[in-house]
Amino acid sequence: MLITDLTIGGLRAYRPDPTTVDLAPLTLVFGPNSAGKSSLLAVMPMLQQTAARPDVLNMSGDLVEGGTFRMAIHRHDESLPMTLGFGWRAPDGSRHAGSGVFRWDAQHRSGRRERMYVDNGELQSHVDGPRPWGGQEGAAVARQLAPEFYETLSRVFFLGPMRARAERTTRVGQGWDDYVGPAGEHMAELLYDRPDLVAEVNDWCDRMGLGYRVRMLSPRSHDIVVSAGDFAVLALEDVRHDPPVLVSSRAVGYGVGQLLPVITQSLIAEHAMVIVEQPEVHLHPRLQAATGDLFIESVQQKQNQVLVETHSEHLVLRILRRVREGTFDPADLAILYVDLHEDGAAFVRNLEVDAGGEIVDGWPGNFFDDRLGEVLPGLANR
User: pTM of the entire structure?
Assistant: First the structure.
């Protein structure tokens, strides 16, 4: 497992006192809207955005759009700190961790790091202020952990809640080889360069019963290439016809375009963390459930860690079914319920799953009762 836990404090609904949230190889995050799920998933991509200039918190970048510090700080109180960090599994198997505490700097009009906490498994310490850190006690630990910290960040791949539909033509040769991008915008280039990956994606399209297969096309004329540049076309074969019919990626439903980047990233990543917000967007319930199998195989076959924010009971129930069937270890699964206290502050509850695929203490927040209430309202209220 790459990331052992996330640390979050002061970001939107989360109180300034940091909360540490344990993760598993496959972690599902669910709960009501605007309760803090997306904020939790934003910790890693926000730190990735900040890595180029770690003393200044970059809340709005290429990965996530988090507004400004004063927009996102808890209760818009700019005097409060915001803490973001994570723990990771070190090469020797121990847990190492790092987190930054950021505060509003009125002079520079940005969130600036005032303290960084570090933990190398033997010593917990900190450094204050921006670099150089001088002779502070934690400086040696911070320098020791820095290569691990940034290498771990480089192995995290985030897909946002709305993936872009593939363009009819895509420029190739831009160097993307392991990341489809936060909106799936680099997927076609990846598939063009990797025929073996196309075969894997199409295998999953067949297994999920998507009805389409990917086919990458390229211009045959040298004159076109030298005048228009290197480009490829992502087309889809409608396999519901015999023989299959070739169609544009823009001529199919939105669900197909939302799902393909999720399939591609889950397959191309290895020994990495894949973060996906709402993989079920625009998907039929059958496909939502099948996406759960995709994530399980990404964990088991690709040795990935998968962190998913979802509202889909079909996806959750499919994974619990695999636990019940004995094909997925409950120790490799974490289900996190995120909700708000009466005062509006977010909390995260880790739900224990037994070997029978059941939530030990039951589902909180009437998660599955809403559907039952629509069908049998009298029974649901008992």
Answer: 0.94
